């Protein structure tokens, strides 16, 4: 399975093409749109989300609601394009008015400066339009389709917010997907600890007033993942490594942890290794899950636990120092409409890319041409592992 996305933040639309999704999956368009809406939401978002109303259009690879096994083409329109139709017109020539909207004061922490140098763009809008995390909307649409396939394979997955700025919001380390889902739908932060909602709202409000921004930590938990996805055979077959790459590929993610991650480094071996047991009904298992469901680059059947650290949003309303790329004068960085924090959407995006990597691993391991055959193969494989 593979995918590609195209589109700029204020261009006409975002486009995604997925290749390798099995035939025969009933696609729930409302389910995709619910994930798109969740990605738009969350406390701390900027005004752009008041303009956008993300809905998916399926324009290939699905017939009468079912996947055909051919490439699936998806579109999410940018409503804001209506206000940028001259500036972001894909084909009409540049006008003097367009030049007025050029960006020449690169924002520290964004792709602006190096992107301009690398591609030879002297209008940094040519960089920021694509480096904008607007693109994550189409990645979430692709992730939502992957989630619907995982659902058919009885694999559950949820992303939530674990920390905002320095405030932690998950004191119980719960790994039950249903319980996590229930807790996070009760607030607009997708956090588990309800008593942290007010302090985090206050933190975001104050940070916004200060013209500053926040990052945080998100966590994804996946359960009932078949053991043995990925391999220890070669470095580039390790699924934990592929997961880390996909998660790092989300805008502003600066760190990835599997299981106890960095905490494991400071622990003793006896506190980290998950002891092995065997039950007649279930076969082999582990008594704990410090290693987040991975051993030797392979899933081990325990819940998959992946955390990601997001840096604070780079565009600050109290703008940081920059230099005008034309005049070389020291100036404040460019400011456009921006989020104070995007940790809530990041939890949906990270969940989506983890779902995508899981589907890739599954379709690499089994025959992914057709849902029914895939289901049969996975069910036989699960039985074989149980009887080992
Ligand atoms: C959902 C989401 C929303 C974001 N919103 C903004 C934003 O409003 N303003 C901004 O400057 N950066 C925003 N970012 C972060 C930038 O896209 C990101 O920092 C930038 O592309 C540079 O990439 P890097 O941080 O991975 O180096 C957002 C990221 C995500 C995942
Ligand atoms: C548009 C979205 O997020 C954007 C991500 C983003 C950035 O620099 O990453 C900057 C802001 O938008 P613009 O591209 O208008 O400057 C955010 O609003 C979205 O998530 O739908």
From TrEMBL:
Coiled-coil annotation reads none
* One GO cellular component, as annotated: cytosol
Which keywords does this Swiss-Prot/TrEMBL entry list?
Amino-acid biosynthesis, Aromatic amino acid biosynthesis, FAD, Flavoprotein, FMN, Lyase, NADP
- What are this entry's molecular-function GO terms? chorismate synthase activity; FMN binding
Q: How is the cofactor bound?
A: Reduced FMN (FMNH(2)).
* Required cofactor names: FMNH2
Q: Which GO terms describe its biological process?
A: amino acid biosynthetic process; aromatic amino acid family biosynthetic process; chorismate biosynthetic process
Q: PROSITE patterns recorded for this chain?
A: CHORISMATE_SYNTHASE_1, CHORISMATE_SYNTHASE_2
**InterPro entries recorded:** Chorismate_synth, Chorismate_synth_AroC_sf, Chorismate_synthase_CS
Q: Which Pfam families match?
A: Chorismate_synt
Catalytic activity, EC: 4.2.3.5
- Quote the catalytic activity from the record: 5-O-(1-carboxyvinyl)-3-phosphoshikimate = chorismate + phosphate
The protein's matches in Gene3D superfamilies, at most eight in alphabetical order, are given as: Chorismate synthase AroC
What pathway is this protein said to act in by its record? Metabolic intermediate biosynthesis; chorismate biosynthesis; chorismate from D-erythrose 4-phosphate and phosphoenolpyruvate: step 7/7
Alphabetical list of HAMAP family matching this protein: Chorismate_synth
Record's family?
Belongs to the chorismate synthase family.
| Subunit record text | Homotetramer.
Read off the PANTHER family from this record. Answer: CHORISMATE SYNTHASE
Its annotated function is as follows:
This reaction introduces a second double bond into the aromatic ring system.
What is the protein name given in its UniProt record? Chorismate synthase
> Gene for this protein?
aroC
């Amino acid at each position: 399975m593979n995918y590609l996305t195209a589109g700029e933040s204020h261009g006409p639309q975002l486009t995604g093409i997925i290749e390798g999704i099995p035939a025969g999956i009933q696609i729930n368009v409302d389910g995709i749109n619910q994930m798109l809406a969740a990605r738009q939401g969350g406390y701390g978002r900027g005004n752009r989300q008041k303009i956008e109303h993300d809905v998916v259009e399926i324009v290939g690879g699905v017939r009468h609601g079912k996947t055909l096994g051919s490439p699936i083409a998806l579109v999410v329109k940018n409503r804001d394009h209506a206000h940028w139709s001259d500036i972001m017109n894909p084909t009409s020539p540049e006008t003097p008015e367009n030049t007025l909207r050029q960006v020449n004061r690169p924002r520290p922490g964004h792709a602006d400066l190096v992107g301009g140098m690398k591609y030879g763009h002297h209008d940094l809008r040519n960089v920021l339009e694509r480096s904008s995390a607007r693109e994550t909307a189409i990645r979430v649409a692709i992730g939502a389709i992957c989630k619907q396939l995982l659902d058919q394979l009885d694999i559950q997955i949820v992303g939530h917010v674990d920390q905002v700025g320095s405030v932690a919001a998950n004191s119980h380390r719960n790994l039950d997907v249903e319980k996590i889902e229930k807790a996070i739908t009760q607030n607009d932060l997708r956090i588990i600890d309800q008593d942290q909602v007010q302090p985090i709202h206050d933190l975001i409000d104050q940070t916004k007033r200060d013209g500053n921004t926040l990052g945080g930590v998100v966590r994804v938990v996946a359960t009932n993942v078949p053991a043995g996805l990925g391999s220890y055979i070669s470095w580039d077959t390790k699924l934990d490594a592929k997961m880390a790459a996909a998660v790092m590929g989300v805008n502003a993610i600066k760190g990835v942890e599997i299981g106890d991650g960095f905490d494991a480094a400071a622990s003793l071996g006896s506190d980290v290794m998950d002891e092995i047991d065997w039950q007649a009904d279930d076969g082999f298992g582990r008594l704990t899950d410090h290693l987040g469901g991975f051993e030797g680059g392979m899933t081990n059947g325990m819940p998959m636990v992946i955390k990601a650290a997001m840096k604070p949003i780079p565009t600050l309303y109290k703008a940081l120092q920059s230099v005008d790329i034309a005049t070389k004068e020291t100036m404040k960085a460019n400011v456009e409409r921006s989020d104070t924090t995007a940790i809530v959407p990041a939890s949906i995006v990270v969940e989506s890319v983890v779902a995508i990597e899981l589907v890739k691993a599954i379709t690499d391991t089994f025959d992914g041409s057709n849902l029914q055959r895939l289901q049969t193969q996975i069910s036989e494989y699960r039985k074989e592992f149980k009887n080992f």
